[in-house]
Amino acid sequence: MDKIVKFFSKLFEARQMAHIFHLQVKGKEGSGWEHKALNDFYDSILELTDDLIETYQGQFGVVEGYEMIDTAATSKIESKEYLKKLAEYIKIERKQIPADESHLHNIIDEIVSLIYKTIYKLENLK
C-alpha cells in the first residue's frame, strides 16, 4: 500500500508544482502561452487524479497516509523538465496498479497524455 500512496501523492505534487510554476511565469517571450498551458495542466491533473483515486478506492478501499508535498524543487528545475521527469516516473511506477485493471490504466494514460500535451504547448506555442 505504501507504493500506491507514494504514486498518488506524486500526482498531487504535480498539481501543486504546476500551479507554482504557473504563478512564477515571468514576462519573457511566450510567457502568456506558458502561463495558460500550466493553468490548463493544473486544472486537468486534479480532475484526473480525483477520478483515478476514487475509482481505485471504490475497488480496493480508501487510501490513507498521503505524503507531504515538497515544492522546494520549483526553484531548481524548469516546468518542462519537471513534466518530463513526471511522465517517466508515472510510466515506471504505474505498475503499482495490477496490469489487468485496464479501467485504472486508462485514467493513467489520460494523465500521461495530458503531460505530453502540456510539454508540447510549452515547447511550441510562443
Rounded average pLDDT: 90
Using the CA coordinates, give the radius of gyration: 15 Å
The DSSP helix count reads 4
| CA-CA gap between termini | 42 Å
Shape: globular
Helix share, percent: over 70%
User: Beta-sheet strand percentage?
Assistant: under 5%
How many β-strand stretches?
Answer: 0
- Reading the helices and strands in chain order gives HHHH
Query: Which class do the helix and strand fractions yield?
Result: mainly alpha
List the topology elements.
Blueprint lengths: L1 H22 L7 H30 L18 H15 L8 H23 L2
Helix pairs in contact: 1-2, 1-3, 2-4, 3-4
Compact summary:
This protein has 126 residues and is mainly α. It is built from 4 helices and no strands.
Walk me through what this model shows.
It is a single chain. 71% of the residues lie in helices and 0% in strands. It has four helices and no strands. Helix 2 (31-60) runs antiparallel to helix 4.
